[in-house]
Amino acid sequence: MSDHAKGGHGSLKSYLIGFVLSVILTVIPFWVVMGEPLDNKGVAVAIIFILGGAQMLVHIHYFLHVTIKAEQGWQAMSMGLTILLLVIVLSGSIWVMFNLEENMMPAHEQIERVRNLP
Amino acid sequence: MTDTTVKEPVQFFVTEDPHHHDGDHGEHHHETGTMLGFWIYLMSDCLIFGILFAVYAVLGGNYAAGPAPVDLFELDMILVSTFMLLFSSITYGFAVLRMDRNDLKGTLLWLVITGGFGVAFLYLEVLEFSHLIHLGATPQASAFLSSFFFLVGTHGMHVLGGSIWLVVLLIQLSQRGLTHENKRRVMCLSLFWHFLDLIWIGVFSLVYLTGVLL
Q: Which of A17, A60, B43, B143 has its CA at 20 to 30 Å from residue A111's CA atom?
């Protein structure tokens, strides 16, 4: 293996740090749902997604060893493009389909209001 | 890089880089190409999963008067299978570290342990799916279940594929040892395996935890 590739393998310490962080970031969201310590579901969902996102970053850094410098920057570059596409696809479809559902299924009062128009 | 070119003349099998001795780009350039190519494949796989996540996010609430996530999912089993994947990630990391020390036996041992955790994860998933189908929560029951089986099943198929690849890699390693090609294969599967664990974070956050909570 070249020195270049070796730099990307990480060390025992970095793998263990990644593992411990992943365990913590896994146990807390499961506890939030199974232990039901919170009354507010919105806060619980926010905790799940923030910690899930944080754990993804931990995996990218400590396990996948993505760095700005690896592969002359092409690795980080292609990941950036993928994340951009994912954000567009996910947020776009959720947004559009939410609006579609809101507008395609008029509530009863809305129907009545339209019916009573002069 | 010179040590690998010394090893190269002993080739019992077709190497994927027959031209790497000629040309002034050298081997370094080629090695970059394989790992980067595999990385770009992973990114396209990531887009597949992104679309499946979007489908689940849109359709996941359409129960069609059928069962909802809170009726179906057993979170303690999901926690166990999450830890199976997490353990397999760290043991794969240990295998890579052993490989860096040129310790073939250690590499093989940790890869076998990784495969064991992978098979345990698959076993738990098959149990869960057969339990759901036994309850009548089949993919045909509702849009929620169609998108659920599609997303989680695609991830499971990837883990199955990775496990088969792992078995092939074990055979290659035990036959040829830690050659240049085999090291590259170990690193490619390493990326693939950690990537599947990363996708699973999205699955348990969106499908299982949020599903049971809401």
A: B143
